[in-house]
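[stage:ingest] chain + small molecule (2-phosphoglycolic acid)
[stage:ingest] validated
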Amino acid sequence: MQIVILDTPQQVANYGADRFADQLKHKPDSVLGLATGSTPIALYSALTARVQRGELSFANARTFNLDEYLGLAGSHPQSYRYFMNEHLFQHLDIALANTAVPDGATDNPLAACDAYEAAIQVAGGIDLQLLGIGRNGHIGFNEPSSSLASRTRVKTLTPDTVKANQRFFADGEFQPHLSITMGIGTIMEARQILLLATGQSKSAAVRAMVEGPLAARCPASILQMHPKATLVLDRAAASQLEDVAFYQYIEQENQRLPGV
Ligand code: PGA
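[stage:predict] done
[stage:export] tokens:
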């Protein structure tokens, strides 16, 4: 794992935008895995600004989002399809037909999960997968105890995740407790992974991911097994890491090496 520790959340977003820009420059028809939540919003703003300045184009890219609430149609303001359209897709030069989010309104979730897996394969697999991390170590909606080999499927959200996301729903509004999520095995097949984490509330999960054992209890710990995973953290998210000086030393040394 490459561990990059930066001072501020904005620097984390800019670093992420640089990685997306490099990927699209190198392969304009990249298949990109995208994420929702508070963390990627600043990254999506940075990407939007670059596209609008004409520095970056998503015209030939395809995207697959990690997850969606089961029971919400894409027109629902709390659905992840709606979030993606609002925060990213409508500002980019990408056709919505080339953006995929699991269908939360499907009447056949099992078939929808299999079709989602198949569509990723047909697209050639994911080149760069963006991830956040939940306070409980989840990636996508792969909650603790998820099989580390899981594929896209229906998952029950933990009470902690439901509570963490409650802020987006109005009082009394229906809030789904089920989701469709890419599996951990699906995520691990991405050629490169870019996980962003900011804020003190993520520091325990970040420590478990980086320095804890590989365990289904912390789904993000599987990234220890990925050959090309970059974790981009702000100081608050990195604050419980024990070996932070070593990670910074590695980064300094890497910067001296051409092509790393
Ligand atoms: P957040 O969510 O960015 O809103 O903290 C991340 C996640 O739960 O994966």
